[in-house]
Amino acid sequence: MDKTVIVNLKHYKVSSGNRCENFLSKFIGMDNPSDTRIVFALNPIDFRIAKSFPELDFYAQHVYSIDFGAGTGRYSIESLMDFGIEGSLLNHSEMRVPECQIIETLDKAKSMGFPIVICAESPSEAEKYLAIGPEYIAYEPPELIGGNVSVTSANPEIIRDVVEKCAKNSVPVLVGAGVKNNHDMKKSLELGARGVLVASGIVLSDDPLASLTSLIEIL
Ligand code: G3P
Question: Domain limits at 142?
Fold first, then answer.
């Protein structure tokens, strides 16, 4: 089973803008004995940096369905691909979008072979998007985001429920919110998820490399 960790850099001061490059450089050559797929989700102001780190994998934190053209403040899948960004989150709790926009964007992304991780705040929201073929559903209860209580201990039954629903369409699940350590990662796998979507536990750690290394160490 492929284990996956997406590290969402959000718009934290230490991981975006002028400091993004320094932040990412910590992960060059990191040990990954569990062979976990690690992806960094970039803020739009940092898309260009992806080309400077060919050894790392990048997603965007959000994407639109537009083409190149009159799109003030927005950007296309094509432009992300030009930067070597390989996929995107969509509908994150901090960047919610209407259902019709999710469907339109996913349709376009699929036609371009560009994977989309749809974030969902509940099992019923996840269910709405299974048939349109997201790469993952990322289940994140918004009230736990950025806190110290992990989704894996607060809502294990809901995770099982999301995993079961998604399995009917063979869509793997990531879980996020309050994820901090190896225990949370292992628990997410035990509950049937494929891995985690994590931000503050890595980005705001005193030692982000040590935190990520220990998160993916599967005992
Ligand atoms: O996208 C990940 C996120 O929303 C969870 O944030 O800080 O609780 O890991 P955090």
Answer: 3-215
Query: Ligand 1 site: residues with CB under 6 angstroms?
Result: 8, 92, 140, 145-146, 176-179, 197-201
Query: Average pLDDT, stretch 99-106?
Result: 97
Which atom belonging to ligand 1 lies closest to the Cα atom of 145?
8
Catalytic residue IDs: 92, 140
CA 130 to centroid of ligand 1, rounded, Å: 22
Secondary structure of residue 125 in the 3-state scheme: helix
Confidence of residue 219 (pLDDT cuts 50, 70, 90): low
- Percent share of the chain, pLDDT over 90: 98
Phi, psi of 35 (to 5 degrees): 55, 40
Into how many domains does the chain fold? 1
Q: Please report the atom of ligand 1 found closest to the CA of residue 61.
A: 1
- Count how many residues are written for the chain: 219
Tell me the CATH number at 118: 3.20.20.70
Cα 68 to ligand 1 centre (Å): 30
Measure CA 122 to chain center: 16
* CA pair distance 150, 128, nearest whole angstrom: 25
Confidence of residue 155 (pLDDT cuts 50, 70, 90): confident
